[in-house]
Amino acid sequence: MIQKVRESERDKIYDEYITRVGQLASGSVQQIDKGNLIINLGKAEAILPIKEQIPREKYRQGDRVRAYILDVQKATYGPQIILSRVSNEFLRRLFELEVPEIFERVIEIRAIAREPGERTKLAVYSADERIDPVGACVGIKGVRVQSIVRELNNERIDIIPYSSNPEIFVTRALAPAKVIEIDVFEDESAMTVAVEDEKLSLAIGKAGQNARLASKLTGWKINIMSETDYNELKKREAEDMVPIGEMEGVGAKLKERLIDHDYSTIQQLAKASAEDLIKIDGIGAKSAENLISKAQAFVSEIAVKRREKELAEQAADKQDASVEETIPDDAQEKTE
Length: 336
Prior knowledge:
With 336 residues, the protein is an alpha/beta fold. It folds into three domains: 2-84, CATH 2.40.50.140; 89-232, GMP Synthetase, Chain A, domain 3 (2-Layer Sandwich), CATH 3.30.300.20; 241-323, Orthogonal Bundle (DNA polymerase, domain 1), CATH 1.10.150. It has 14 helices and eleven strands. It has helices spanning 2-18, 88-98, 100-103, 133-138, 143-151, 166-173, 200-204, 209-218, 227-240, 252-260, 266-270, 274-278, 285-326, 329-335, and strands spanning 24-33, 36-40, 45-48, 64-73, 80-84, 107-115, 119-126, 156-161, 179-185, 190-195, 221-226. The strands form three sheets. A five-stranded mixed barrel has the order 1-2-3-5-4. Strands 6-7-8 form a three-stranded mixed sheet. A hairpin with a 2-residue loop joins strand 1 and strand 2. Helix 6 (166-173) runs antiparallel to helix 8 (209-218). The N and C termini lie far apart (101 Å).
């Protein structure tokens, strides 16, 4: 009879908490077991595993803890309630608590990129043009966001206005660094971004954190370069550009048609799609594939030659440096 009563109580607790998965729960630290926290929620006990805790947070018995209900599992000794403080959804629920406009769906959280305990980037959007989504999340004198920052052990939070335009979104995600130029490679979901020379370290962030979070937030691979390096890259690319007429199999008429459709170099043709080339008069499906294949092979050959040249220059520089090191100081002075 006692056993059945206990089983009934366990089932009741399980039924209650399984419906609360995805919500916040608060309790006190009852026990610390090898870094895992046993949290007393009142009606039940929950576990906050060490991997679900924010790094460098320290707890003692009796401390109050707020966390996200990640999962509820049935076990022989009763339901096991698993909590998390590192989940992106924990951050989302905190903003719903602090920002009424998010709870009421007037403002949407479109994307979250987070490194718990370190830094978070949050993209917000409002369909109502009268509402400033960033300002609403920050609050007067930052009171709303600061409340969440304190809850997250002083985790830095960057709130960014969402944009459906990938270039604008990436530019905003890399703030506070100012973006000068962007090259978009849609097939690879990648972008090359140029920033001011003195802002390069700011754009990349400590140990690459700013760039990494911006990439996670936007879903684009981001290659960040200084303005000087970007200009040098463009200069090399311009030097490598080869007129379309120099490719084997491209006659005068085909050359004119390709140039009319903005394919004036072999490099541009290599990036084309068969669907685009088929739209040009006189080019069929097989011809389009053949042209693209030849162009890509040509570009690959140029890239290999350029890489070999760079390696040869690097090897020569190293050799010169090693020769200088082996010459005694007095010999160098005499040579000078």
